[in-house]
Structures are given as C-alpha cells and as structure tokens.
Design a protein that fits this description.
It is built from 18 helices and 14 strands. It has 371 residues and is of the alpha+beta class. The chain has a domain of 92 residues. Helix 5 crosses helix 12 and helix 12 crosses helix 14.
C-alpha cells in the first residue's frame, strides 16, 4: 500500500484532535497523545486546551490534582502528564534502558547501580506516607550516611538521580505546595495503580498507542521518541513483531513504515485540505515524530523550532507541515519560513482558537521579518 505524506499529516491532525477538537475529558485527550510533555506547565495546558471543544483554564492541573493523571519523568527523561494506563505502558520501557548502569552516566552523576537500587528502595519506603517536598525528601534520605555523597545530585532541580526511580515506579510528582514540587508514589496517588508490567508486556501496548497518534513510523522513530534510541534494537523490533497482524507495513513516498492495521482504511481515505493551525511550545505534534523528521519540518529550519536549552518553539502548521513559528507579545508575532504565506481567513480561525485556549477574547497577529 502506498500513501503520501500529505495523507499522513491529514490523518495525524485528526487523530491528535488538532483539526477536529475533542469533547472528551482531559484524560482522554492526554491518553490519545501518549502523554503531554509538562516540563513547562503552561505549554502542557495549552496543548490540551487547543484540542478541546470547551477549553478551561487550568484543566490539566485540575486533573493532576484529582489523580486521574500523574506527572512524572517519562519519555526522553522529561516530565510528562500521563494517564495511569500510559504510565504503565511507557515507564517500564524507560526502565529497560538501564541508563544508570552505563559508565558514562555513573561518571556524570556519581552513583553506582547498587546505590541507585538502594536509593529506589529507600525512597519507596520514605514516600509510603504523605507527599514530601524535595527538601524534605532529601533530608530524610541524608539521614542515612550511605547517601551523603549523593546530596548535591538529589537537590538538583534537573532530577537526574530521581529519574531512574520514576521509571521504576518508585516516585512521581504529588500536589504542588505553592511553587514547591512535592513527591509521592503512583501507588499512593492513584487508587487503582496496579504496578508496572514487564517490558515485553508493556512494549506492544506502547507501540500500538504511539502509532495510533504518530504513525506511520519505524521502530527507530518510536524509540527516538521514547528513549532517544537508548533501548536495545532487538527488543524494540520485538515489541513491533509481537503485534503481528495488528500492524501493516506501508510505503510513504518511498519510506517503508508501520501503521496499525485498524488505521489503514482511514489513512488511505485521508484527503488533504488547506488548513492553518497554531500550536504551543513543546507540542506533541512535533515531539511525536521528532524535529529531525524532514517531511514534517524542513531541515534548514530545524534550528527555528528546536532552540537552545532544549526549547521547542510554538508552531505554525500549514496543511499539516511546520511552516513557521510564533511568539505571544501582546499579539501573535508570526515568523514564516522562506517567505511563506498564510491564508488570512484560515489564520483568523487559528487565532480565534488560540485565544480561546488562552482564555482571551481575541488575538491579533503581525508578521515578523521573514526567516
């Protein structure tokens, strides 16, 4: 079967609730996206609001407080808001990378595999009670002299020493105390938490969920999104193979990729139409396939989207492809690639939708110097 990238982008826009916002509750939107990157809370809120027919301020944060979602370090070591089902699918695959057992990781962060194992056990016991702030958690850990040398790393806001613990289900974020982060465990946060399955069980579930939003894709693209290709290649290919007839190989303009068999007919029937959408920073639409996907984002303009310090810029989509970026400075300042044009009427529609997602009555746009 042969399909075009235009068909793929049309299908993804629909599947990700970009072209057709959803009336579903926030957890259902987050689940379809395989989680929402939440390093920057306002960006995560925008991602959900833009995909909802009835956007509400703070809707994502509210669901985190209710325990229908959890916030933890997940894909690529970044903070995500996840449904319990998504956490159970993706966290075991992050744990399977065993990055903390690599000499390079130990050299940078100063903890041996044995120390990480001891830390995991200690944190699980300490957090088997009320949620603790980072300072409270670190103080409790440093009561044990065995962890004294890890004090600086434990206090770091980057959480490098805590990520392996999150991947193993030993901790996650709890309800914030003002501007202070707290930690708890999935078991205490979620009433129906059943623990983490083995990678061979979780892998096919994770692959299917990913392809349902970001397909068609290769095993390499999936693992780049998941772990920056830190998993063993045979294991990743095995997760794909385990799905058997539930996957179909297709040709997208000469590239052989996999789709869920259940999605083949929708992909084949996708008919591209002219559209303009404005998506926020760190949006899953680009994080899913990755900024190195040149069919989605021209290589010459990757630097405009993937910026310094890991910042992913807000996106201007034209017919499903990334055609520019924007910034909010009283009005929406649009920077189009290569002197591209945006149909005025469709931009107005995108601005109205962005305004609603931001809780504003209206937004105006101006064009920056062409890049």
């Amino acid at each position: 079967m042969r399909i075009t990238w235009d068909q793929v982008f049309t299908w993804r826009l629909t599947r990700q609730f970009v072209s057709e916002p959803s009336a579903d509750p926030v957890p259902a939107i987050v689940d379809r996206l395989c989680g929402v990157q939440a390093q920057v809370t306002s960006s995560a809120e925008t991602a959900v609001a833009l995909r909802s027919t009835t956007p509400e301020a703070g809707a994502l944060t509210r669901e985190l407080g209710r325990g229908t979602l959890l916030k933890t370090w997940a894909m690529r070591g970044t903070l995500h808001a996840l449904t319990p089902a998504a956490a159970a699918a993706f966290l075991p695959l992050m744990a399977a990378t065993r990055t903390w057992e690599k000499a390079s990781w130990q050299k940078v962060f100063g903890a041996t595999p044995a120390e990480v194992a001891a830390l995991t056990e200690a944190v699980a016991q300490i957090l088997d009670g009320p949620a603790l702030t980072r300072d409270e958690l670190v103080e409790a850990l440093l009561a044990d002299k065995a962890f004294h040398k890890l004090g600086e790393g434990l206090r770091s806001g980057w959480g490098a020493l805590l990520k392996p613990l999150a991947w193993q289900g030993a901790l996650c974020h709890g309800a914030a105390q003002g501007n202070r982060v707290t930690f708890t465990t999935p078991k205490r946060l979620l009433a129906d938490w059943a623990g983490l399955p083995e990678p061979e069980v979780a892998g096919p579930i994770a692959v299917s969920a990913y392809l349902g939003a970001y397909g068609p894709a290769t095993p390499e693209t999936f693992d780049a999104w998941l772990s920056r290709n830190s998993n063993r290649k045979p294991a990743v290919r095995g997760w794909f193979s385990a799905l058997g007839d539930a996957l179909t190989e297709v040709d997208v303009e000469g590239v052989r990729v996999y789709v869920r068999t259940a999605d083949v007919d929708e992909l084949a029937a996708a008919r591209p139409s002219s559209s303009v959408h404005l998506l926020g920073a760190f949006d899953q639409y680009v994080l899913g396939p990755g900024t190195k996907d040149t069919a989605l984002l021209p290589a010459a303009h990757r630097g405009e989207v993937s910026r310094k310090a890991g910042w992913i810029a807000p996106l201007v989509l034209v017919d499903g492809r990334i055609a520019g970026t924007w910034e909010l400075d009283g009005e929406v300042v649009v920077s189009m690639f290569d002197g591209g044009a945006v149909p005025a009427a469709r931009l107005e529609s995108a601005l109205a939708r962005l305004a609603a997602a931001q809780g504003l009555d209206a937004l105006k746009a101006r064009f920056a110097e062409r890049i």
